[in-house]
Every structure is written in structure tokens, then in C-alpha cells.
Design brief:
Blueprint: E1 7-8, E2 11-12, H1 35-55, H2 68-73, H3 79-95, H4 99-102, H5 111-116, H6 119-145, H7 148-168, H8 181-195, H9 200-212, H10 215-218, H11 221-224, H12 230-240, H13 248-258, H14 261-264, H15 266-278, H16 284-294, H17 303-317, H18 321-337, H19 343-355, H20 361-364, H21 373-386, E3 392-396, E4 402-405, H22 411-423, E5 428-429, E6 432-433, E7 436-437, E8 443-446, H23 456-469, E9 480-484, E10 490-494, H24 505-508, E11 511-518, E12 530-534, E13 537-541, E14 548-552, E15 565-568, E16 578-586
Antiparallel strand pairs: 1-2, 3-4, 4-14, 5-8, 6-7, 8-9, 9-16, 10-15, 11-14, 11-16, 12-13, 12-15
Amino acid sequence: DTSSPSRRRGRLRVPWAAPRPLPRCVSSSSSSASVPAVAALVGVVVGAAASLVAVLPLLGVAGGASTPLAAAWIAPASTQLGAKLQAKGAADASGRVPRQRLAARPIYISKRMEEMLDAENLKAALLQEKWQANAGAKKRSQKVVEGRRLAQIVYVRETMEKVWKAEEEEYAGMDYSKQRPEIRAGKKEIIRLEKAGLGPAARQQSMTISLIGLVPQIVSARASGEPMDEEELVYFFGTCEEKYGGDLKPMLVEAYQKMEYVSEGLGTMSLLFRSMAKAKLQSGPAYETLAKNAFPLCKKASPVEIADFGRALASACQLDADTKASITKGLSVSKTAYFTPEPEMIRILAWNCGEAGLRLPEVFGDPHHTVVPEVAVEAWNSVARLASIPQGQLVSGAPVPIVAVEEVVTEEEAQGLIDLADKEKLWQPSARIGKKPVSGRPWSALFGNSSHRTHPAIVNIRLWAADAFDVPVSQVEAVRLVRWRVGEATPTPHADTKPAGDTSMWARGQRIATVLINLKTLPDEAGGDTVFQIKTGDLCIPPDVGTALVWPVVDTAGRPSLAATRSSREVLDAGVWKYSAVTWVRSQKPPDWYKDGMRL
């Protein structure tokens, strides 16, 4: 009907209200006159929910999983309808479009969908997207600055070298064309500075000012904006040791004094120490400043970082006595003035330094070389219990119990251990003068590699010792083979405990017992007896294959004992050699950071 008020300007206008915010639910008490409007609203909700379902895979909802984020975004018209929409979304997301094809597409959110989303979750999603964009931009900028440190090092090296060579030679009245290119370049630099009115002292100051800003960037990951590289740092520290690089050492000390150590981290300090050691840098003030300021970083570092720092310190201290003294002084000042190290931190650092050959009792002190009395008494009781089993026999009861236990290993296992040491060429002289082995002394082979852990005979020995003393197998040291050939002996009696100051006790404590297993049976006239020096005289025990001799090496108060020292008589028969396997039980279980319990 053209007369209808709905027809104006040739267009059909349908009565329609302005858009309103979508209600959370539709009341069941709505009048019959509002049924068409309710139906329209339900249709809009269903359509918007279907669009949202298509977007869910893009938002990271894999397989339509009903995550809290997705559940909060859906604002259904009713609880029942919301459940149906979520079920439909799960089916669509799992079966309609593969997620990997849509992972790289941008996320588009319509205005009506925004009204259905929870504001906080939407903000979290946008912040996550912004963070990812910033991370990508940071990664791209990181690529841009790669090589900046190397370029700075090259510039510093070339500048120092050119000026030094130019000042080394007399150039007054000489023809520049007949001189070496690098000399000409250096002289041109000097002439340029002279034209600017700078004399020799001012030229040196100008050069120092131009370089002093580069040194902090070279030795800092934060200032340079790129990861530290050990080869580049070695190249730079090598420049400091060149005949023209002496002026760089004061700049290096000043850079270390102004460095922000907390933001750099302990890993950067370890890398600097290691690089300085490889370059053989001789600068006591630099080592002292770095050690003094880096030591407190151990307080919040992980055990792995502390271990790496300890090994880096050891590599630097091995340069010379002056470097070691400078590092020791820096650590001592830091420990006294800046912070109090925790015992566990000292334990980790001291043990790793000791593994690399560095002992610093001035800083770390010495590990405890005694044992808790309860542990020592239990070790004595464990040895006494072995005498009561069918294979055990009490050889001596005083001053310490010595028990012989038969059939600990079989002849096949014993021969397998000997063959393994021969095959892998593990034999090393037990005594040396310089680098030459001492004649007439035995050789030994340590099964300390990770590949030896699963060898049946080695596993059997360590498990047997652990069961005998009721301790974890990690408290049993790696098995060591000892070989005596004809004419070889161990004439000097010795104790089996670790001496005071031994750094291995930082990780595992003192030895509490010895397990010595004979791998060959020698005839009576062949010699090779194991001799215990006890108060009543020498106790001689001939070797018998598979028999283990077990005794405690501490007294009941936990002190290292010299009551049962041992030696080995000379092997006389040319047709046989003596072989023994020995291991020791420690007083402590290795800590979690001690990964390789086979090494000690």
C-alpha cells in the first residue's frame, strides 16, 4: 500500500527499534506481544555465537576445549542455549578447520562480538598479542645489532695499533708514500689531531675518551644489546695484552667498577673470567674488581650457575700466583664487607673449584673431615653384622673389626673387570716423579665414566657395598682396580681416609669404610699378601678370588683412624699378577646438584 506511512521515498521501511545491548538472559514471563522481538534476539545470539565458534580456533582453543577463557567470552541468551552453543563450538572446532592452517591468520572481532566478550579476558588477549608483537620486534632488532661488539673490538684494536705505530717511528721530514700503509694511516690520524690543536698529551687523552665509552659496551651484555661471545671477548682481552694495548687495562678496570652486576647476572661474570684466562690477561686490579662484585651474585644464582662460576674462577687462578692472589683478595673483601654466604652456596662453589684444581681455604674454609658419631657407630655395626652371615669371617676384632666375606664376585665377573680395564687402556701409574711412573709401584684403573655405570660386575660391587652398610648406592664411590706385577708392591702403610682439606668432602663427606675385593688367587709362594699394621703385629691375608675384606676407617667418635693401615707385599711369582678391586663408603649422600657420583 503506497499510502502506508512505512513507504517513504520509494523504500520499504520495516518497523525496527534501535539496537540495544544484548541481555544476559530472556525472562520466561515476557508477554505474547514481544515474541517476535525475542525470536529476533535469539536469532542474533545464535548467529553471533556461530561466528564466535569459527573464531575459537584462532584464539588458541585447540579441539574446542572448554577453557575458562572461552567460557567467559560466551554470553548466552539462556543457560540451556549456552550449553548447546558450547557443544556446537566443540564439534566445529574439532572437525571443521585444522588449527595449523589458521594459526598464522589475524584475529578479527566484530563489534557485536565485542559486546559478548568479557572485558578483562579481551584485554588479556590483546595484551598477549601485543607482547608477542613486541617480542618479535625485539628479536628483529637483536639481529640488527649482531656483530656490533666485534666491530667495536676491531675498531679499538686498529686505533690503538695505528697510533702506537705512528708514534713509535720518527716521521718528521719523511716521505709518507714510502712508509707502510698502517704507519701512514696512523700519522694521518695524528696530523688530523694536531691540526685541531691537540698536542701529544691531548692526543692521547682524545684517543682515550673515544675508546673509554666502547670498553663498557664490549664487556657487557646489557650495554651492547647482544649476547656475549667468548671468542670475541678473548680477542678483546688479547688486545689488552698487546704492546700497544696497555692503556686499555685501566679502562677495563673502570668499566668493571661501573658495571651493573645484578642486571648482567652470574653467567656473564663466569664468561668474563673464562675469557680473561684464555687470553692470559695480566691485570690484577681487573680480576680483583670483578671477583669482589661478582661474588654476591651467587646468593640468588642456581647451583648450575654457581658451579660454572667456580670452574671459571679456577681457570683464572691457574694463570699465575699474582692473579690468584688478586681473585682471593676480591672474594675475601666481598665476603667480609658485602654479604654472608650461605653454607650450601659455599659447598657448591668450593667443590667445583676443587674439581678444577683450586683450593681457597682463605675464602671457603675447609670441609669437615670428621664424621657424626652416630654414622661412625653404625659403620662399625655394619662391619660386625657381616661376620655373622654364612660367608663372613671375623679376621680381627681389635683395634678395628676386619671381616672377610667370600663369593662377593665370581671368577667370570673378576676377569670381566680386568678385561674391561685392559680393553679401554685405563691403567695409570699410582705414583709418579714428575711425569714418570715410579718403578716398583702398582698401577690402577678407575671405572669412573658414565659408560661404566651399567657394567654388571661394577653394579654388583657397588650394590653389595650399599646393602652391607644400608646406604644409598650414591654413597659408594666408583670402583678402582689395582694391579701389581712381578716386583711391584705397596711398601708404605697408608690409611684410607681423605686428608683434611680434600675438596671432595664438600660434596660427599669423609670415608667411613673400605671394601677391598681380590680378583685373583695367588699361590702361597707368590707373595702379594695384604698386610694390616695393627697393635698386635702385622696381619697378613693372602689374596683369594672373590673374597672381600671390609673394615671401618674411622673410630666410633667419627675421627679418621690410623689403627688399621694397610700395605701390600711384593709379587714374587713371574707367572701371576695380583689384581684387586677397591671402593669406599662415604658418610653423606651427594646433594642434588652433584650429578656424577661415579667420579670421586
